[in-house]
Amino acid sequence: MQRPQNAEGRQSRIAEYFGSNVFDLRAMAKRLSAHDLEIMKKVMKIGGKIDSSLAERVAAAAREWAMEKGATHYCHWFQPQTGATAEKHDAFLWFDKEGNPIERFTGPELLQSEPDASSFPSGGIRSTFEARGYTGWDPSSPMFIVETENGKTLYIPSVFISYHGEALDFKTPLLRSNNTLSIEAIKTLHLIGEKKVTHVTTSVGPEQEFFIIDKKQAMKRIDLSLSGRSVFGRKSPKGQELEDHYFAHIPSRVQAFFNELEVELYKLGVPVKTRHNEVAPGQFEIAPIYESSNIAADHNQLVMKYLKSIALKHGLVALLHEKPFAGVNGSGKHVNWSMTDSSGRNLLDPGATPHENLVFLTFLCGILQGILDNSEVLRASVASAGNDHRLGANEAPPAIISIFLGNTLDKILNAIETGNNDKINAEKIMIDLGLSHIQNVAKDNTDRNRTSPFAFTGNKFEFRAVGSSGSINYPTAILNAAVCDGLAKLNKKLEAKAHNGTVSSNDLLMILRHVIKETKKIRFEGNGYSHEWRDEALQRGLSNFANTPEALSVLSNKEKTQFLVKAGVFNDDDILSRLAIQQERYVKQCLIEVNCAIEMAQTQVLPVCFSYLKLLLKNVKMASDLNLPSPAKKVVETFSDAVSHVVSTLETLKTQLEKISDGDALEHHNIGNTSHIISTHFMLKLQNLREAVDTLEGLVPHDLWPYPKYSEMLFGME
């Protein structure tokens, strides 16, 4: 697809059509008064409420803008706890008092809609018969138009709540966490003398990894079609061991897909910046420029939506599962996270002066405290069936939450920790370390540590443990709340030393020294893949939850989750409901994979193997009748053993499946126990079945094997 053309008939530059389908401040400026525009600027930047009269004017302006672009419908676009998005389209069509057709879109229709909430996950927070749910416009995220071949629709980013006001989505907790973190961060800044700061926002840039394979091949495998993961598949003779795919030339077919993807995303205001081949064959990445976390989360949902839909237009399939193929790298979604104050200053930028260094070091210590104290819940926020195949597999960070700062920052903190109580001087520390400007940290002295789940990378932290398929709203909300908790604890210490509302530099450094010493066990500068680190982490008291059921168990511990309640992100019932939803999603995802494996083994693998075994036995008999040695005899024994293993494992899986097939196993009071059974028994048997089937794949002639192999799928785009 070519870029849009301008009035002169040439291809438009990106800047000319970027955001053309977004009702942003540029579009509003042409349709709203200067006063209304100023209010919208403030609301979109720092939040706030919009009264009914302004909502009416915004609705009228949005309707005219959308209709001029050909839109016929509108919808409240929200993010239920399915990990996907949801929408219900309403036409602009209405009738006046005389019964004449008109187009209408009012303030109340903009502010709120009422979708049925009964079929969305609620984790038992409401009864099944309580079906009423509400979507409410989120004015901090601009409206936009989605174009399809069949029409155009105005999308209204929205929160999703129940009749009684409980949050049923991922957006609401993120908005709450942003607000609370801003309040706590402002308090921190005021205590250390930064009195002019009025608000603090979080910025996010999620790197999206995914696989691309041919659609015809994908459709021949129900495991990929239904679960997103290949439950069977023998390792290809060539994988990623030559390291020749990473940053290599993008295949022309994929390049065409990228070109159209970027055009559509640019029109929606999604600032995608980078595209490249990833490490594994068939794997790619797309990454945006940083935005406020709420808008970045909305945009990442659009990225995932368009990855899938545009791939299909090119005869391709985009796989977002964390581990669609065994034996090669899985996919993550590295969430790059930072904080910015009202002056536009990045609070995680080390800065160029000692005074700025103190701001940076203060927030760094608050983050260290928050991550240390709440690491287990942060781990739970990225727990999923797909991520279980990825975390700690020498391709992604381990399941142990730790923080990597880099050599220079590590030295700075160690110097502060071991300095003389009465003579700690930030500027002297920097100079003693050979740094005339701490800005060098951002430029030269911080390496990337791909084995760290939470690494400082110059002027931001990279949360690498987030999986590729899910919403970034939830882990970002948990991260915000954890940092808020760390800053709150730091603020208590600052307040105890403050005079006239401000802490002196010496007192501040003394407090930071204490925090640095207290949080040292969460810092790790080495290889997170090593067995030595696992042993050391255990000695440090850091948790290592190997799978989703283990990781999620922490959410039932009120002591561990109280920071979420204090931050106003969730209440106790919210947390338990989300625990139940995550457990249920884990169980159902695993059962889909098990059922796919059973069906493929029974209806594809075994029939082919029995036919081939019959042919082998015929060859053995022919050799015997002619008194000739039969090389097929040994093959028959190996082959028969593998077939028998498949059959016996299948029977075990089906027997286990029957035990949890009744509805009671998936009821909320049993879902936790069921998830542990799935993890400890089903997934082990599924792996055993895979090993047997993959052995058979290596014995059956290529042209007889019933579905595409790894070598065909992973290298089909080259």
From TrEMBL:
GO terms for molecular function: glutamine synthetase activity. Residues 175-605 form the GS catalytic domain. Residues 72-165 form the GS beta-grasp domain. One of its GO terms (biological process) is glutamine biosynthetic process. Transmembrane segments: none annotated. Signal peptide: none annotated. It comes from the Bacteria. Belongs to the glutamine synthetase family. This is Uncharacterized protein. It comes from Silvanigrella aquatica.
